[in-house]
Amino acid sequence: MTRRFTALTLALTGAVSLLVGLMLAGSLTPASQVIVAAPTSARAAARPGLPTLVVDFADIAARVNPAVVFIEAVSAPHRVQRGSVPRDEIHEGVPAQPDGQLDHADRDSGSGFLLTPDGEILTNHHVVDGAERLNVKLADGRSLRARVIGADPDTDVALIKVDGVAGLPVATLGDSSALRPGEWVCAIGNPLAYEHTVTVGVVSYVGRKLFDESLDDYIQTDAAIDFGNSGGPLINAAGDVVGINSAISSEGNNIGFAVPINQAREILAQLRKRGRVVRGYIGVNLHELDDDLQRSLRLGTARGVLIEDVNPGSPAERAGLRRYDVVTAVDGRGVQDTVALIRTIAAREPGTRVVIQLVRDGRVQDVEVGLVERPLRDKPEPSSPLPTVPSRDGERGIGVTVQELTRQVRARWKLPPALSGVMVTRVAPLSPADEADLRHGDVIIEINRTPIRTAGDYRQVAASARPGDLLTFYVYDPAGGERTLHTLRAERQP
């Protein structure tokens, strides 16, 4: 009995010693927390189960910095009063202008990076827009004159070139589609003319929409970007350029945006060949399809992209496309959302014809459409405010007050002559209409595909709406000149 007890004691002691040793070893070097220096060729994004990597941005900056350039854009002189110019800028002995004024050129600065050894440079369109002379300062100190090869205002990308050079250092382009939120990036540029400034942060978001819902695909980052950074590279932990720094938020700190490098790469051939980018266009406004729209509009399909408006005189109108058609495919290739459909059409050459498969009132149809060139986006003129009408008919359960489209209202808001409907004069705060983004000045044309021609038509629909009913408003926005869909769920009337 004593021998057995002694043997058991020794066995237990050995097992405990082994476990303690393993625990101590694990607490000193847990595998999930091993920190190593990442080789500059490694991808920044750590994968589950792999050790966390420390990125050496100092080495990355040393390799990429020689390809980053300073761009000075000089535009036509403007006239200024002599009294507004500091005395030391007035050259003694130089005759004054006949009208007593001085000419001063406008000088703006930005950034860019070398794309080819013979001097092609990528930057932003807004950096070079309107410039009559471009001066480029290379990292080695040389200052050279540059010319614009091509520019695309819609994506804010420009290609410029310095001539008579060779063997210049170039930046390596990466794959922006592989970026993930939280991934380390750095920006290099010339903020406020402080040349070759390096800042580091992470990707905050991918696919951000800022100006144009149809084309924008911005990378958001908290790497510090300031005026003068525009056109400079956004670089991942492998040292590859994944974006062109383009914009900053005016309302927050360290909220910057970059054009994805894949988007710039797609248009390079056109910039070199044409000097601009042409895109296919059919002339429709689109809306994402969801269950509420499908039920309220009785669309007959849950897959595809809904046409919410057809522009007058457009290829779509000539081909017979209609509001409430649901596009499911282009040339036999399915489309799942508005972005996919717009990019599919935009990628085609104007003058080509495409076959659009759609569902109309539950029936599948094929429609052939000839593409034209997509117009450049413009900024609509703001409309004048409309006095609020005190009547509150129709607010119950929906939150909207309306009035007839009188002659005065049509003139004030410059409404199309053929437009019929009622104008929203008030949206109750926190109401279903407010949540659906209906706004003062909107013109309600239809509700659930039923035309609304008078205030009485609207009040009848509003009065018959029961709590929980889905209502899809077809609305004209005078400020933007667009027709859009807004879906809301009626609430219990107080």
SSE topology:
Blueprint: H1 2-28, E1 36-37, E2 53-54, H2 57-64, E3 68-81, E4 101-114, E5 120-123, H3 125-128, E6 133-137, E7 143-152, E8 157-162, E9 184-189, E10 197-208, E11 218-221, E12 233-236, E13 241-248, E14 256-260, H4 261-273, E15 280-281, E16 284-288, H5 291-297, E17 305-310, H6 315-319, E18 326-330, E19 333-334, H7 338-346, E20 353-360, E21 363-370, E22 372-373, E23 400-404, H8 407-413, E24 422-427, H9 432-435, E25 443-447, E26 450-451, H10 455-464, E27 470-477, E28 482-489
Parallel strand pairs: 1-2
Antiparallel strand pairs: 3-4, 3-6, 4-5, 5-8, 6-7, 7-8, 9-10, 9-12, 10-11, 11-14, 12-13, 13-14, 15-22, 16-17, 17-18, 18-19, 18-20, 20-21, 23-24, 24-25, 25-26, 25-27, 27-28
Search tags:
alpha+beta, Pdz3 Domain, Thrombin, subunit H, 10 helices, six-stranded antiparallel barrel, disordered N terminus, 494 residues, 3 domains
The overall strand count is 28
Quick check: average pLDDT? 81
Identify low-pLDDT runs: 1-6, 22-46, 79-104, 379-394
Distance between the termini: 87 Å
Based on CA inertia axes, which overall geometry fits? elongated
- Total of domains: 3
- Which range does the strand content fall in? 25-35%
DSSP summary: helix tally: 10
If you compute it from the alpha carbons, what radius of gyration comes out, rounded to the nearest whole angstrom?
31 Å
CATH topology of the largest domain: Thrombin, subunit H
Looking at the overall shape, the CATH architecture of the largest domain is: Beta Barrel
Quickly name the level 1 CATH class of the largest domain.
Mainly Beta
| Main sheet properties | 6 strands, antiparallel, barrel
The strands making up the biggest β-sheet line up spatially as 3-4-5-8-7-6
**Overall helicity:** 10-25%
Coarse structural class:
alpha+beta
